[in-house]
Specification:
21 helices, 12 strands, 3-stranded antiparallel sheet, RNA-binding, mainly alpha, 3-stranded parallel sheet, elongated, Rossmann fold
RNA sequence: GGCGCUAUGGUGCAACGGUUAGCACAUCACCCUUUCAAGGUGGAAAUGCGGGUUCGAUUCCCGCUAGCGCUACCA
């Protein structure tokens, strides 16, 4: 395979916030595509808007990408450090007539009120103005020598530097190819003379590029072959196709991927709950599960397969499977994916996540990584069927790892009500203390024998014991749990619970 | 307002002219059961509307409607 044919793609977030789930999905698609095709994945930071840009957020975005398991081959490359390239490109467009200097004040067009823009079009056919709401065609576009000199003089006297606008053809159409949406063609009359280089703000000297210019110049320079990005860019792509043409380059293949919406079908926002990747990692989702879920939003392997681990995703991903319809972020489905991973991952793979969670909860013990590793893995395996998120290991299952746990009020209420319990549990504790062999069947027999001789149902003791040794109404099967916790601690906890049980039954 | 994109159960995807319209999540019922889960079985639930094209439309075309996107010297 020649290196020239290697696909090159990029993910280009703007550091104006954390990594959004939509951005994450776009990053995943780019990454999967690059890895599937044996191509190159580049990370680029689009920080050309000095007012919105927050450099300190870059690390957070990078962390989120790493958490997702995404690695990049080149970058991060910062646009703010390549301003000269954009300026040179604008210069070239100016020189070959594809752009012109605009001396208008930025406020003139801010807000996009087309009505006031129309008066700039004096000299053109009046009837055409009424029929079609024309896109911005600045008067500066057709300045004659005298007018230009005057504008320049005026600007100079005010210390104002003009912006550079693209000279969009009056007639004709502009087309481009999209791997998802097919060939697109739009009327040039519908495209405004968009800005390429902004006029410097007071106090600035650098002439910063707008998104369109920087994006195209970078994609050209980076030899990007496939631009995979959100469908919100679909309508703006003709502008970029125009820039490629002006710069004498062939545009890449575009692949616009559908957006991810909130449950009410509107753009995802904080109203819908967490929108940042970081918050899902903090909540305790497994990155692979989260990624699996996101990948299936707007993409399908073509069949009904859903549980797709990294290797399968890499093997099966293709742009052909990308959908054209927006998808809704369905939290319950995400949770289902997480429980699937929690239950099906090889326990050795899950262990590091559990260890991290226990460390976070400050109940981690180093021996679990060493001498007691086998016990640790067995215990995780015992617990995981009842977990949904990582913190469950340190919360509901806390009693497996620490003596510092409390009795859940609802559990006490439910299983410590029977008046016979204080006497029964005292006997049970001593029976266990006297038990020589600590194994599942022996523990089972002791309890059932006691229940039989006392004339109560085994369930009464089982349920009460569960609360006594773990503090929870919900836990793995009792005798398995007792084995994991150990005889000493079970007996101790049983004895320790006696006062609380008495208090509960008599209250 | 203009331009564009999209349209299969509540949700995510299959079916790319011929299927009793499939799978999964969620939901309901039952089974299993020492709790709670998991698991198993079964149920309810969809081709937005209207025209075409065709022997035959979920699938192709047109209109409508709805949703979304773009319409910034933001990306």
């Amino acid at each position: 395979m020649s290196t020239a044919s290697k696909p090159r793609v990029r993910f280009a977030p703007s550091p104006t916030g954390y990594l959004h789930v939509g951005g994450a999905r776009t990053a995943i698609f780019n990454w999967l595509f690059a890895r599937h095709e044996g191509g190159i994945f580049i990370l680029r930071i689009e920080d050309t808007d000095v007012e919105r840009n927050r450099p300190e957020l870059v690390d957070g975005i990078l962390d989120s990408l790493r958490w997702l398991g995404i690695d990049w081959d080149e970058g991060p490359i910062f646009q703010s450090q390549r301003l000269e390239m954009y300026r040179a490109a604008a210069e070239k467009l100016l020189a070959n007539g594809f752009a012109y200097l605009c001396y208008c004040a930025p406020e003139k067009y801010a807000g996009g009120d087309h009505a006031e823009v129309e008066e700039v079009e004096e000299g053109e056919e009046v009837e055409e103005k009424k029929s079609l709401l024309k896109k911005q065609r600045c008067g500066c576009r057709n300045l004659d020598a005298a007018g230009r000199a005057a504008a320049e003089k005026q600007a100079a006297s005010q210390g104002f530097q003009p912006a550079v606008r693209f000279r969009v053809p009056e007639a004709g159409t502009t087309a481009f190819d999209d791997a998802v949406f097919g060939r697109r063609e739009v009327q040039n009359a519908e495209i405004e003379d968009f800005v390429l280089l902004r006029s410097p703000k007071p106090g600035q000297t650098a002439r910063l590029p707008t998104y369109h210019l920087a994006c195209v110049v970078d994609d050209m320079e980076m030899r990007i072959t496939h631009v995979i990005r959100g469908a919100d860019h679909l309508s703006n792509t003709p502008k970029q196709a125009l820039i490629y043409g002006g710069l004498g380059a062939a545009p890449p293949i575009f692949a616009h991927v559908p957006l991810i919406l909130g449950p009410d079908k509107t753009r995802m926002s904080k109203r819908h709950g967490a929108t940042s990747v970081g918050s899902y990692s903090e909540e305790g989702f497994l990155p692979e599960a989260f990624r699996n879920f996101l990948t299936l939003l707007g993409w399908s392997p073509g069949d009904d397969a859903q549980f797709l681990r990294t290797a399968e995703l890499l093997e099966r991903f293709s742009l052909a499977g990308v959908s054209r319809t927006n998808a809704i972020f369905d939290r319950p489905k995400l949770e289902w994916f997480n429980t699937q991973y929690l239950q099906k991952l090889p326990v050795e793979e899950l262990a590091p996540y559990v260890a991290a969670e226990l460390k976070r909860a400050k109940i981690w013990r180093e021996e679990w990584a060493g001498a007691a590793r086998a016990w640790f893995l067995r215990t995780i395996d015992l617990i995981r069927l009842r977990t949904r998120l990582l913190p469950d290991f340190s919360a509901a299952a806390r009693g497996f790892f620490s003596d510092d746990f409390s009795y859940d009020p609802a559990a006490m209420e439910k299983f410590w009500k029977d008046a016979k319990l204080p006497a029964l549990m005292a006997k049970l504790a001593e029976s266990y203390a006297a038990l020589a062999e600590w194994n599942h069947d022996a523990c089972d027999k002791v309890l059932r024998d006691l229940a039989a001789s006392e004339g109560v149902k085994a369930g009464l003791l089982i349920n009460a014991t569960r609360v006594a040794i773990l503090g929870q109404a919900v836990a793995p099967p009792l005798f398995d749990s007792m084995l994991a916790i150990g005889k000493e601690r079970v007996v101790a906890r049983l004895r320790q619970a006696l006062p609380a049980i008495s208090a509960k039954t008599t209250s």
